[in-house]
Structures are given as structure tokens and as C-alpha cells.
Write a structure and sequence with these properties.
Blueprint: H1 2-5, H2 8-23, H3 35-49, H4 68-80, H5 84-110, H6 112-123, H7 128-133, H8 138-157, H9 161-178, H10 181-196, H11 208-230, H12 233-248, H13 260-268, H14 276-289, H15 294-311, H16 325-338, H17 343-346, H18 348-375, H19 378-403, H20 407-437, H21 439-450, E1 456-459, H22 466-473, E2 478-480, H23 489-500, E3 505-510, H24 511-521, H25 536-543, E4 552-560, E5 565-573
Parallel strand pairs: 1-2, 1-3
Antiparallel strand pairs: 3-5, 4-5
Helix pairs in contact: 3-4, 4-5, 5-6, 5-8, 6-16, 8-9, 8-10, 9-10, 9-11, 10-15, 14-15, 14-16, 15-16, 18-19, 19-20, 21-22, 23-24
């Protein structure tokens, strides 16, 4: 592997493929609900209203955060327009810069080869590219957490003002992206280093009593402006939703057992999983013996604050332990450069990791084919099958080479398998799913093609945030009828009056509401109508009413990815 990372042409090719994968189809794949659509909406409203302090958009309240990421999207919108590519652009840049930080700031701590290989592993992993290809806050947070952790460790290695200033600058940026996680990482790492590192008193020279308030100053200035904008409603909600509820329990059922994040790391770095158990084993073996080697103290502190603490919290998502991903990449990279081919026949821990790798890899290949059959069209099934064959075939090839001790071949195969998997997934699999998943975009496009700009669009249901955002991209004003997931009698009567008015009106409903609204137009009073849609006769009652009662209707079928179920939208026009 040393020969590969010393070959400049090979490195240019690797980083070129990584960058290509990160940008691949970012302009054509529709927004992911809920978070990404909400963030695009926040940036849109900030530019439209001039309110840059309180993020607001329809049906997006649970996704509000500190605003730096939304400001970055707004800046991308200024450069590229309001579209999917612009929303994801800052996340791609943030992930690439995270890899650059890991190399530039890590080589002083872990050596050039280890830090360079770690950057390749992190950027070429199976999971982290997703953070760039979906415009969430996570890639930006990873950038600031990576910088903060490496600045702290560099300060422990070499006491210098540049590391102090960089540390608190990264902390300040991370807070403005997502609040507490970067503080948890830095304070947790500092605490572990103070307990175990022989140079613990060096931490005093970080002057936290001065720099923590200074790092929090942008947060205070923004928070004060947000408090004045709405009387403290948003700030109070933010503290309750993102701190108190996540510490005391979980939200949206986002939870998991202890060991959840260990499983996430195994899948994220699956092509190099066989090295991970040995790296962790060496780390804890040296910790028990209290050997004064900086690497082991650094990794213990980094993993404790970036990983272990989150295993104890009830609320869990794969992105919660973002701060630990660079540390895991370093551990694996270090083992790759130390392990020799014969060790795979000599060491049980490497053989165990190798078997775990091949079992998980083949399970993923089987799952790809099963998911393709369940959710994708014919071309999607073909794409899923090709991806599964390429991935599974390379995994078996790598497994056999590791078993024979030919680690150079196996490592090249592991890198190729990871890059190929990301390319095939985002080049073919996700676009084939997008044909069903982009229903909200199709609704907006249909309305944009079939209506004048002054038409009145009524969204009669609490749809996904992408629905109102896509309506803004076709320059149509809309009215939100109800903040609930159901309509009441007075709502149907209001829709009936609007439909019968002379003003050109478009009404967007989901399947259930469309059927019931059709009953109202047929002048069937709903207090005489059956409501239990679990009973087949009830569904048949609504379904058998005639569509011809409306002047014109369009139906668009989609797939709600965050609920893993199909959905049909109905667009009702009051003119032909």
C-alpha cells in the first residue's frame, strides 16, 4: 500500500474519482425529505424575506438549527441558483476539506503516509460520501469537528498559538452549524487527556476561560438577534428539542442499543473492516499497560468523546458520532501500514475480522438485489444486480487475497470496490429510485406547465417540505390549508367553495383526501360517509365515485422514502 500512496499519478486518480463520485448526479436527484428539503426551504426564505436569524419554512419546524449551514446554502444559491446542486455544493466542499484537514493537520501527529491513507479511507468510505450527496448539516459539522480534534492534539504535541487559535475557531464554527456536538467532542477529549496524558497541564495553556466565551460570541450574537426577532420562541424550542429531549430520551423513534455505532463503523469502513478489530485491540491493550505513547492516548481521548459517549445516549442516528470517523480512519490506516501479509494466517483477530467482512459484504449484495426487486423498476433491478455482482465479486476476490497473504492486491481491490460501489449506487441505483421518489417535484412541474403564474395553488395536506419548495422553483404562490395530517368538515367546505369560485384554482391533495373531497363535490355529506379506510367496502365507496365531477385532474404517484411507502398526489383544476 505504501507504493500506492507514494505514487502521485495514482493519488491524483484516486482523489479525482472520489471528487467525481461526490458530485455525481447532485443536480438531477430530487431533494430528500424531510431534512434536506427543509434546509433548502430555510435558505430560500432567508434570501426572500431578509430574515437571516430564524430559519422558517412550511412543514419544517423540527429541522431548524443554528444557521451557518443554511447561510452556506444561501450562498451557493446566489452562485448557482436555487436547485439541488446548489443545496448540496457546500456539503461536498466541506467533506473534501475534512479529508484535506485530516492529511495536513494529521501528518505531524501520525506521519504523512498514515494521515494520507486515512484521508483516502474516510473520503472513499461507504457512508461518508452520503453526507455530501445529501445536503445536511453533517458534512459541515464533520469539517469543524475534524479540525477541532486535530488542532487540540497538535497543541498537545507542540505548544503553539496557531493551534490554540485554530481550535477555538473550529469550535465556534461547529457550534454555529449544529450546536453542542463539537463542544462535547473537545471538552470530552480534553477531559480524557487531562486524566491520562503525562503532559496534562499543557491543556491549561489553551486558556479556555478566555477562548470559550470568545468562541461562543457568534452564537450569542445570533441568538440575541433571533430572540429579539420572535420573542425567544425559536431559541427556547431549540434548547428543548436538541438538548433536553435528546439527553432524556429520543425523538422520532431514532434510537438503538449499545453497540449501534460500532455496527455503523463496521459498515461505513467495510472494505477495510478486517483491520479495525486489531486496531481497537492494540489500543486497549496499550491503555491497560499505561504505555506513554502519544498515539494511544490521542486515540483513546478521541474515541471516548466522539464515539463511546454516544453509545450511552438513547437517541441515535449514524451521523451522531461524526467526530469519531477520522479517528477510526486513522486507526485502520495505521494497521494497514503495519500489518504484514503473513499476519492474516498467524493472527486470529485478523482472521475473525476477515470473516466478518465477507459475511457482511455478501449480505449487502443480497440485500441490493432484494431491495431492487421490491422498490425499483426493471432498469433499477438490472442496476442493483450489476452493483451486487461487482461488489460481491470484488469482496470475494479481496477475501481470497487476504487469506493468501497478498495484502497489496487485496487493499487495491478494497479501494476499488468501495469507489465502484459509491459510483454505481449514486450513478444508477439512486436515480432509478428517484423516478418514483420525485413525486413532489413532478407535481410542481405539472403545475408549472399547465397553469398561469397568477393561479392560486392550495396545498390541502401537510405534505413533505419538498412540495412547497418545488412550487417556489416554478414561481407559483401557494396557500397552506391545514397544519394537520387530516382535513375537517370546514376544510372540505372551504375547498369546495374555492373550487366553485371563478378564480383559477389548483388544489393538491393526497389519495385519501382526494377521494373524500370528491364525495363533497358530489354533494355527499361526509357525516353520512364511512371513514374507516381499513374496511374494503369503505375504500370502494369513495373509489367508485366518478372523477368526471371535476373539470380536470392529474395524478402523480411517488414513494415516500422516510416512511417507506407509496403515495399518490392528486392535482385538481377548477377549469379545463
Amino acid at each position: 500500500m505504501q507504493a500506492l500512496i507514494q505514487n502521485k499519478r495514482a493519488l491524483y486518480l484516486i482523489f479525482g474519482v472520489i471528487t467525481f463520485n461526490l458530485f455525481l448526479n447532485n443536480w438531477s436527484i430530487s431533494f430528500w425529505d424531510q431534512d434536506e428539503s427543509a434546509y433548502a426551504g430555510f435558505a430560500h426564505n432567508m434570501r426572500k424575506t431578509g430574515n437571516w436569524v430564524v430559519p422558517e419554512f412550511d412543514w419544517s419546524e423540527p429541522h431548524r438549527k443554528t444557521p451557518l449551514h443554511f447561510w452556506a446554502i444561501a450562498g451557493s444559491n446566489w452562485l448557482f441558483g436555487e436547485n439541488e446542486f446548489a443545496t448540496r455544493f457546500s456539503s461536498v466542499v466541506a467533506l473534501l476539506l475534512s479529508g484535506l484537514l485530516l492529511f495536513l493537520m494529521g501528518k505531524n501527529l501520525f506521519g504523512r503516509e498514515t494521515s494520507l491513507l486515512a484521508a483516502i479511507l474516510m473520503l472513499g468510505s461507504l457512508f461518508l460520501p452520503t453526507l455530501a450527496k445529501i445536503g445536511l448539516t453533517d458534512a459541515s459539522l464533520l469539517f469543524f469537528e475534524t479540525g477541532a480534534a486535530l488542532a487540540l492534539l497538535n497543541f498537545m504535541q507542540t505548544r503553539a498559538w496557531k493551534w490554540t487559535l485554530l481550535l477555538w475557531l473550529f469550535v465556534s464554527g461547529g457550534i454555529m452549524v449544529k450546536g453542542p456536538p463539537v463542544l462535547i467532542l473537545v471538552i470530552g477529549m480534553s477531559g480524557m487527556l487531562f486524566l491520562f496524558h503525562p503532559k496534562r497541564w499543557r491543556l491549561v495553556h489553551l486558556h479556555p476561560w478566555f477562548f470559550i466565551p470568545l468562541a461562543l460570541l457568534p452564537l450569542y450574537l445570533w441568538g440575541d438577534a433571533a430572540w429579539k426577532a420572535d420573542g425567544g420562541v425559536f431559541i427556547t424550542w431549540l434548547i428543548d428539542w436538541y438538548i433536553l429531549k435528546r439527553v432524556s430520551g429520543n425523538v422520532f423513534g431514532q434510537t438503538g442499543p449499545p453497540g449501534y455505532f460500532l455496527a455503523v463503523f463496521c459498515v461505513a469502513f467495510l472494505p477495510w473492516l478486517m483491520y479495525f478489530p486489531k486496531g481497537l485491540g492494540d489500543l486497549f491493550k496499550h491503555w491497560r499497560k499505561r504505555k506513554n505513547e502519544d498515539y494511544y492516548w490521542y486515540m483513546l481521548a478521541w474515541l471516548s468523546a466522539g464515539w463511546f459517549v454516544y453509545e450511552l445516549v438513547s437517541s441515535k442516528l449514524p451521523s451522531y458520532c461524526l467526530g469519531a470517523y477520522p479517528a477510526v480512519a486513522i486507526i485502520i490506516s495505521r494497521e494497514i501500514l503495519r500489518v504484514k501479509g503473513e499476519d492474516f494466517t498467524r493472527l486470529k483477530i485478523l482472521r475473525t475480522g476477515l470473516w466478518i467482512y465477507i459475511v457482511l459484504a455478501l449480505l449487502i449484495a443480497a440485500a441490493l438485489i432484494a431491495a431492487g426487486i421490491l422498490f425499483l423498476n426493471t432498469l433499477g433491478i438490472v442496476a442493483a444486480s450489476i452493483t451486487a455482482i461487482v461488489w460481491g465479486g470484488l469482496s470475494i476476490y479481496n477475501f481470497r487475497n487476504y487469506r493468501k497473504g497478498e495484502t497489496d492486491k487485496a487493499l487495491r481491490g478494497s479501494l476499488i470496490s468501495s469507489l465502484a460501489f459509491v459510483f454505481l449506487a449514486w450513478g444508477f441505483l439512486v436515480p432509478s429510485l428517484d423516478a418514483k421518489r420525485s413525486a413532489t417535484r413532478k407535481v410542481a412541474q405539472v403545475i408549472g406547465k399547465t397553469t398561469p403564474k397568477d393561479v392560486k395553488v392550495i396545498l390541502a395536506h401537510e405534505f413533505l417540505p419538498s412540495m412547497p419548495f418545488y412550487l417556489t422553483t416554478v414561481d407559483r404562490n401557494y396557500e397552506v390549508l391545514s397544519p394537520y395530517n387530516f382535513l375537517r368538515d370546514k376544510d372540505y367546505l372551504y375547498l369546495k367553495n374555492r373550487y366553485e369560485s371563478k378564480e383559477k384554482t389548483v388544489i393538491v391533495l393526497n389519495e385519501d383526501m382526494y377521494l373524500r373531497f370528491r364525495a363533497y363535490i358530489n354533494e355527499v355529506l361526509c357525516y353520512n360517509c364511512p371513514y374507516d379506510f381499513r374496511v374494503p367496502s369503505t375504500w370502494a365507496y369513495y373509489a367508485n365515485l366518478p372523477n368526471s365531477v371535476f373539470a380536470k385532474v392529474e395524478s402523480i404517484e411517488g414513494f415516500i422514502t422516510d416512511k417507506t411507502r407509496p403515495e399518490r398526489y392528486w392535482v385538481v383544476y377548477n377549469w379545463k
